[in-house]
Amino acid sequence: MALDVFTPIGGTVALAVGTATARAALPDPRIGTEDRSLRILNAGDDTAFVAFGGSTVAAAVPAHGAPANGIPIPPSHAPEPFRIPPDATHLAAICRSGSATLYITLGRGL
């Protein structure tokens, strides 16, 4: 099995995240295909929660026993890789408290 190494496409987007949902468009010409991925680096001090969707997507912080539309991205110096859902055009993010800066790099592979 060949290793599918991440290859960046285009530039990196910086997204300032706080306690209200922030969102960014995914400037990717391959919308509608399954061959899309990205890496997210959380350069802040707080965990951010991200969600993929359309132009109105909102991320949410899960509460104990209540699932929410948010994947945790802990503060770290290691990017988290994701495959982008075929119909997603935007990424949304939120923090429970505090703030974070997410760096989002589009590409192919993981």
Summing up helix and strand content along with how strands pair, one would put the structural category as mainly beta
Radius of gyration: 14 Å
Query: Can you count the helices?
Result: 0
Whole-number mean pLDDT: 89
Q: In words, what does this structure look like?
A:
- The structure is a single chain.
- The chain has 110 residues and is mainly β.
- Helices cover 0% and strands 45% of the residues.
- It is built from no helices and 8 strands.
- The chain has strands at 7-17, 22-25, 37-42, 48-53, 71-73, 80-83, 90-95, 100-108.
- The protein has a 4-stranded antiparallel β-sheet with strand order 1-8-3-6, with no helix packed on it. A 4-stranded antiparallel β-sheet has the order 2-7-4-5, with no helix packed on it.
- It is globular, with a radius of gyration of 14 Å.
- The chain starts with 6 loop residues before the first strand and ends with a strand.
- The mean pLDDT is 89.
Helix and strand topology:
Blueprint lengths: L6 E11 L4 E4 L11 E6 L5 E6 L17 E3 L6 E4 L6 E6 L4 E9 L2
Antiparallel strand pairs: 1-8, 2-7, 3-6, 3-8, 4-5, 4-7
Keywords:
110 residues, mainly beta, 4-stranded antiparallel β-sheet
Give a brief description:
The chain contains no helices and eight strands.
